[in-house]
User: Fold C3H1-type domain-containing protein from Parnassius mnemosyne.
Amino acid sequence: MGKRYYCDYCDKTMVASPSIVRTHNKGVVHQKLVSDHYQKYKDPKTILREESNKKPCVRFARGECQFGGICRFSHYTQEQINALKQYVAAQESTKLNADQPSFEDLYQKLQTEKTTKSQTNGGTAMYDYNGVTHVFPWVYNPVFDSFGDSLPPSLKRLQIDDFLNTTFTDWG
Assistant:
């Protein structure tokens, strides 16, 4: 039977001959479907830039335009173009007013929060009898302290006494 080519845009299969595939890709129906597909992913600023330069499509207004997304004329009404202009202007003003911090600023903020959290939260540091501080890589949830000894061992807060008389066994 030979190899087959499947066009995702047109939902059609055909013989995988280069000349047939090339002819299909140059076809009006294929180009229209490709344009309609990628129109979904365009941002409003790009759509406004493309559509504001075009004249209105008379055939589309009558419901007779067969070209769809590949039409040389605009299929947007003047009200839709004005709404797009307002939307793009609102987006631009929020971008200017946002004062987005840089990646380095966010990283430094995260690192300082991380270090101050581990230093200020009493649950992450343990002091032994020699005065040595041990900092754990986790944070205790203070809600569990209210349950007292009724918690399972995996949820209890570690104490220095838990490590004093520990026996280590060899495994395997």
Summary: The beta strands are 4-7, 12-15, 125-127, 133-135. Helices lie at 18-26, 28-39, 44-52, 58-62, 78-98, 103-120. The longest strand covers residues 4-7. The chain has a mean pLDDT of 83.
